[in-house]
Specification:
Elements: E1 3-7, H1 9-21, E2 25-33, E3 47-49, E4 52-59, E5 62-70, E6 78-89, E7 95-108, E8 115-122, E9 130-132, H2 142-165, H3 171-176, E10 214-217, E11 229-232
Parallel strand pairs: 2-9, 10-11
Antiparallel strand pairs: 1-7, 2-3, 2-6, 4-5, 5-8, 6-7
């Protein structure tokens, strides 16, 4: 199976402009079709599925696009006849840039597990002037992993340094912690057992209902404090 690439009219114009301005070109996507597209067309004829742009490589100074086509991604069976490469200059409008035709049709069946990698070459523009918009879903490279790890390490180091140098790094936690000696209102005590003997303060408000000290003894009352209740009993 052989691929032959040709520039569309729009693609030839974009290439000439890029060369004249010394600017770059961005490859945005690749489409797979079952038709025969004219060089003057602005879109690929009879598009059947969108292959995945995997990466850009440099080969003898030229830009080589690695494109993966999975038959399982097709919505219906078709005969692959051509691939269309879309591109844009700067922030300009995306246009059909190149058409790569197969010398013979290739049957694509969705129910089969067929993966085909195409290497599409841009021979006029230098590889370093061609950018590629890669598909991110389900695709990761060693370079992107390394970059993510490096970014995460830098962010962690910065956060740790900020924490270590902050004068009040733990102040928010300290503010939430109660002092060793503190007071609660009676309404906050709803259950539980006191850890020791609790003594009510001396109080002369004898007609007011309140917590009072109670003493049980076989001896007659002596000592005590105001408000204390003393019960004498016989042993």
């Amino acid at each position: 199976m052989r691929l032959t690439g040709t520039y569309t009219a729009a693609g030839a114009e974009m290439t000439a402009q890029a060369l004249a301005a010394g600017s770059g070109l961005t490859i945005t996507r690749v489409e797979a079709g079952a038709g025969t597209t004219a060089a003057s067309a602005t879109a690929l004829a009879n598009i059947c599925q969108t292959p995945t742009l995997m990466r850009k490589q440099a080969g003898n100074g030229a830009c080589v696009l690695e494109v993966l086509l999975n038959s399982g991604d097709a919505q219906a069976a078709y005969t692959l006849r051509e691939l269309g490469v879309y591109a844009r200059l700067g922030n300009g409008t995306e246009k059909l840039y190149q058409i790569f035709r197969l010398d013979e049709g290739l049957s694509i069946e969705p129910q089969t597990d067929l993966g085909i990698t195409f290497y599409l070459t841009e021979r006029i523009l230098p590889a370093e002037t061609v950018q590629v918009v890669l598909a991110q879903e389900g695709y990761i490279t060693a370079e992107s992993c390394s970059s993510a790890i490096s970014d995460t390490a830098a962010e962690s180091a910065a956060a740790l340094n900020a924490h270590e140098t902050a004068a009040s790094a733990h102040q928010a936690l300290f503010n939430e912690k109660a002092n060793a000696s503190h007071t609660h209102s009676a309404g906050n005590i709803t259950a539980g057992t006191f850890g020791g003997r609790m003594v009510a303060p001396a109080d002369t408000a004898y007609t007011t209902a309140q917590v009072r000290n109670i003493v049980l003894s076989t001896a007659s009352p002596s000592g005590g404090s105001n408000g204390c209740v003393w019960l004498k009993y016989e042993a």
